[in-house]
Amino acid sequence: MEFGEKLQELRKSRGLTQQELAEALYVSRTAISKWESGRGYPSIDSLKEISGFFSVSIDDLLSGEKLVSLAKKENQSNIRHICDLLFGIVDLMN
Questions:
Q1: Angle 3-13/29-37 helices, nearest 10 degrees?
Q2: What fold is seen in the domain 3-93?
Protein backbone atom coordinates (compact mmCIF):
# COMPACT_ATOMS: atom_id res chain seq x y z
CA MET A 1 0.00 0.00 0.00
CA GLU A 2 1.39 3.38 -0.99
CA PHE A 3 1.53 6.47 1.21
CA GLY A 4 -1.57 8.12 -0.29
CA GLU A 5 -3.67 5.03 0.31
CA LYS A 6 -2.42 4.76 3.89
CA LEU A 7 -3.13 8.42 4.58
CA GLN A 8 -6.65 8.13 3.20
CA GLU A 9 -7.29 4.98 5.23
CA LEU A 10 -6.03 6.63 8.44
CA ARG A 11 -8.11 9.74 7.80
CA LYS A 12 -11.28 7.77 7.12
CA SER A 13 -10.71 5.52 10.13
CA ARG A 14 -10.97 8.66 12.28
CA GLY A 15 -14.04 9.85 10.39
CA LEU A 16 -12.30 12.99 9.19
CA THR A 17 -12.82 14.92 5.98
CA GLN A 18 -9.84 16.14 4.01
CA GLN A 19 -10.62 19.66 5.25
CA GLU A 20 -10.64 18.56 8.90
CA LEU A 21 -7.33 16.74 8.53
CA ALA A 22 -5.82 19.73 6.73
CA GLU A 23 -6.83 22.01 9.59
CA ALA A 24 -5.36 19.62 12.16
CA LEU A 25 -2.05 19.48 10.26
CA TYR A 26 -2.00 23.20 9.34
CA VAL A 27 -1.90 22.51 5.60
CA SER A 28 -4.37 23.13 2.79
CA ARG A 29 -7.13 20.72 1.81
CA THR A 30 -5.53 20.68 -1.63
CA ALA A 31 -2.31 19.34 -0.09
CA ILE A 32 -4.21 16.47 1.54
CA SER A 33 -5.95 15.73 -1.75
CA LYS A 34 -2.64 15.67 -3.64
CA TRP A 35 -1.01 13.43 -1.05
CA GLU A 36 -3.90 10.97 -1.05
CA SER A 37 -4.04 10.81 -4.84
CA GLY A 38 -0.26 10.41 -5.22
CA ARG A 39 0.08 13.68 -7.15
CA GLY A 40 2.29 15.15 -4.44
CA TYR A 41 4.17 14.18 -1.31
CA PRO A 42 4.52 15.84 2.09
CA SER A 43 7.71 17.43 3.36
CA ILE A 44 9.69 15.76 6.13
CA ASP A 45 8.12 18.16 8.65
CA SER A 46 4.62 17.29 7.45
CA LEU A 47 5.45 13.58 7.68
CA LYS A 48 6.41 14.10 11.32
CA GLU A 49 3.10 15.87 11.95
CA ILE A 50 1.11 13.12 10.22
CA SER A 51 2.99 10.46 12.17
CA GLY A 52 2.29 12.18 15.48
CA PHE A 53 -1.34 12.95 14.68
CA PHE A 54 -2.17 9.34 13.82
CA SER A 55 0.26 7.80 16.35
CA VAL A 56 2.01 5.72 13.71
CA SER A 57 5.69 5.55 12.91
CA ILE A 58 7.10 7.30 9.89
CA ASP A 59 8.33 3.86 8.78
CA ASP A 60 4.72 2.66 8.72
CA LEU A 61 3.77 5.64 6.56
CA LEU A 62 6.70 5.23 4.17
CA SER A 63 6.39 1.82 2.65
CA GLY A 64 6.62 3.11 -0.92
CA GLU A 65 10.12 3.36 -2.35
CA LYS A 66 9.22 6.51 -4.32
CA LEU A 67 8.42 8.48 -1.17
CA VAL A 68 11.60 7.32 0.57
CA SER A 69 13.59 8.45 -2.47
CA LEU A 70 11.92 11.88 -2.45
CA ALA A 71 12.64 12.31 1.26
CA LYS A 72 16.31 11.44 0.73
CA LYS A 73 16.58 13.98 -2.11
CA GLU A 74 15.02 16.68 0.07
CA ASN A 75 17.46 15.86 2.86
CA GLN A 76 20.45 16.01 0.50
CA SER A 77 19.25 19.36 -0.85
CA ASN A 78 18.98 20.74 2.68
CA ILE A 79 22.50 19.54 3.52
CA ARG A 80 23.89 21.17 0.35
CA HIS A 81 22.15 24.44 1.23
CA ILE A 82 23.65 24.42 4.74
CA CYS A 83 27.12 23.67 3.35
CA ASP A 84 26.79 26.52 0.84
CA LEU A 85 25.84 28.88 3.66
CA LEU A 86 28.74 27.74 5.84
CA PHE A 87 31.27 28.03 3.03
CA GLY A 88 29.89 31.45 2.16
CA ILE A 89 30.44 32.61 5.74
CA VAL A 90 34.01 31.24 5.69
CA ASP A 91 34.69 33.09 2.42
CA LEU A 92 33.41 36.33 3.95
CA MET A 93 35.75 35.93 6.91
CA ASN A 94 38.82 35.61 4.67
A1: 120
A2: 434 Repressor (Amino-terminal Domain) (1.10.260)
